[in-house]
Design goal:
Elements (H helix, E strand, L loop, with lengths): L1 H4 L3 E5 L4 H12 L3 E6 L2 H18 L5 E5 L5 H10 L3 E6 L14 H21 L2 E10 L11 H20 L6 E7 L2 E2 L8 H14 L6 E2 H12 L8 E4 L7
Parallel strand pairs: 1-2, 1-4, 2-3, 4-5, 5-6, 6-9, 7-8
The chain binds NADP nicotinamide-adenine-dinucleotide phosphate (NAP).
Length: 248
Amino acid sequence: MIEMLAGSRVLVVGGSSGIGEATALAFAQSGAEVTIASRSQEKLAAAMGRLRDSLACSAPNAGIASHVLDVRDEAGVAKFCEGWGAFDHVVISASQTRGGSVRSLALEHAYEAMNSKFWGAYRVARAVNIRERGSLTFISGFLSVRPGPSVLLGAINAALDALARGMALELAPMKVRVNSVSPGLIATPLWAGLDTAARSAMQQKAATTLPARAMGQASDVANAVLYLAATPYATGSTVLVDGGGSIA
Ligand SMILES: NC(=O)c1ccc[n+]([C@@H]2O[C@H](COP(=O)([O-])OP(=O)(O)OC[C@H]3O[C@@H](n4cnc5c(N)ncnc54)[C@H](OP(=O)(O)O)[C@@H]3O)[C@@H](O)[C@H]2O)c1
């Protein structure tokens, strides 16, 4: 896997935190040249510091760069995609969404969630330049198959999985593969808004109810992304990394 990715040019949108950051690290450790993008310059700078620290021993010469990008900004996405040239592998992990039941979530917040996670990924997927034999990977989520407290998020994730399958056919003539990775409950800063008691209750529930008996780590999801990027026969796939959550 490592040899296939060495020297490749990789973009991770949403790479300043959680799953995106772990994915950026895994690509860089495989010898790829990685650009992370997200909205906040501060978060990008902090992530670059953590990545450099992590790479200091394993890959001190790794090429990592960052760029401020908001996937909700159509013109900004188009400008970035034009200016940064072609990538071998692109991963889209960016999103900020509010949860809630269909009847309780304000429509305005529902539209915002769709604009961030679905339309954001769609904008990048539509504009980004990917080289022959390259790949595009969306990060969706297991709520698509196992409805939870946020039905809308499940619908957005299902839409991303469908987008991956459809684009895998559309981009096949260009020899570009398209897939999605669908995580379950993963310990990332996404949950930082919960208080300590709620976080610990979530971990406890995962430890007792999930077949994997724990919450997942961002590196678990990164492993699946790298598998898809480095496997020439993988396209149109959705890889679940959910600790068995969809069957529990
Ligand atoms: N963690 C889980 O349990 C879990 C489970 C299933 C699915 N997922 C999905 O996995 C993906 C990554 O989640 P995570 O847990 O890694 O969350 P996270 O730690 O909160 O990371 C989200 C990333 O997206 C970026 N981002 C947010 N809005 C953006 C925008 N408009 N434009 C560009 N970048 C934006 C954030 O950086 P800035 O704030 O700097 O923009 C950050 O880098 C999400 O799509 C999430 O729905 C997560």
